[in-house]
Design brief:
Layout lengths: L5 E4 L2 E4 L1 H17 L5 H90 L6 H7 L1
């Protein structure tokens, strides 16, 4: 942009208040120089100029409000992005914790099953061997 009172952000042309005033003054001058001037027309034009200058003030206030709101919206967008990133990190940590808990449960179940299997083998092994009888029990049983 060649004007010192204008700049472009993300494809949107922004004109500062000074530039806006210059543009409006230029249009007002062109309107006054076109056609025949009568006294009534001049009075009406003067009234329009006053009304338009009041509108310039209102427009400036509205533009300032818009700029402020756009700035706040940009801040909110950044906050939402940050919160989404933190939420994603929390979800990843939760998934990792769940996987760790499942692995621990599987390991614990495997350990218990191994202990149960070992205990069964020992009890089965002792059942296969004939009990040794002492001479006293052999004597009385026959």
């Amino acid at each position: 942009v060649c004007a010192p009172y204008a700049h472009t952000e993300q494809g949107v042309l922004y004109i500062e208040e000074q530039g806006e005033t210059l543009i409006k003054q230029d249009f007002l001058q062109k309107e006054c120089s076109v056609g025949a001037h009568t006294y009534a027309h001049t009075e009406r034009s003067n009234g329009e100029v006053l009304e338009q200058s009041e509108n310039v003030g209102v427009i400036a206030v509205l533009q300032t409000t818009i700029d402020t709101l756009q700035g706040q919206l940009a801040i909110k967008d950044k906050q939402i992005e940050d919160l989404n990133a933190r939420l994603s990190e929390s979800n990843a940590a939760l998934v990792a914790a769940q996987q760790t808990a499942q692995a621990a449960q599987a390991l614990h179940a495997g350990t218990i099953q191994q202990q149960l299997t070992s205990g069964t083998d020992q009890s089965e092994g002792s059942g296969d061997e004939p009990k040794k009888q002492g001479w006293f029990s052999r004597l009385f049983r026959g």
